[in-house]
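Inputs:
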Amino acid sequence: MQVTIKLFAILREKAGVSTVSLDLPDGSTVTAALEKILVFHPVLNQSLAKSACALNQAYCPRSAVLKDRDELALIPPVSGG
Amino acid sequence: MNDWIELSASPLSTAAAVEFATDPAAGGIDLFLGTTRQEKNGEGKSLLALDYEAYPEMAVSQMRELAARARTQWAILKIVLLHRTGRVGLGEPSVIIAVSTAHRAASFEACRWIIDTLKTEVAVWKKEVWADGTTSWVAGHTIEIPS
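Outputs:
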């Protein structure tokens, strides 16, 4: 299945990309997606540890199971306002 | 429509926010502006501006949800919640919140709750732009999600 990963702020800058398309086995969790991203972008390791995840624009635990065409966003510590 | 919620790449208008929040049933309108503060970094360089980035679809839906959550806690007439993206210079507002209520206490409380909660939840980030051309992401609030 195909999952779109969105990167923001410090994660986007470090990786040098704002979107990553991942091909994952059906039933993969957010954790599995993060592990795969780290294979391509090991530079994200530290920042990813402090980041939250949002599945289709809502915060989710890393145990969440992904579906085909999901949008998974990596949310570093927020600093709006 | 009693809420005006927007993420905007252009300068925010305080006058437009107050005008929207104005209501004949209101006894008070509380207005909050978050503005870019002059700073110096560890090397003594001055701050030029803040660059704001958002996850637009999520940030707007979170801002709408904040307005809805505020309405469950206070009897609010109108809510304005505007947030900038892009470069915000010194003294310029990056966020404007206006809340009108029948009595002033609720508007103060709701406005404060909205800005405090926005800062810890909404998918927006800011980067400091210094006079020597360097930039630094503001540390921010880590989102804690029970697993």
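Remarks. DSSP finds three helices and five strands in chain A. The mean pLDDT of chain A is 97.
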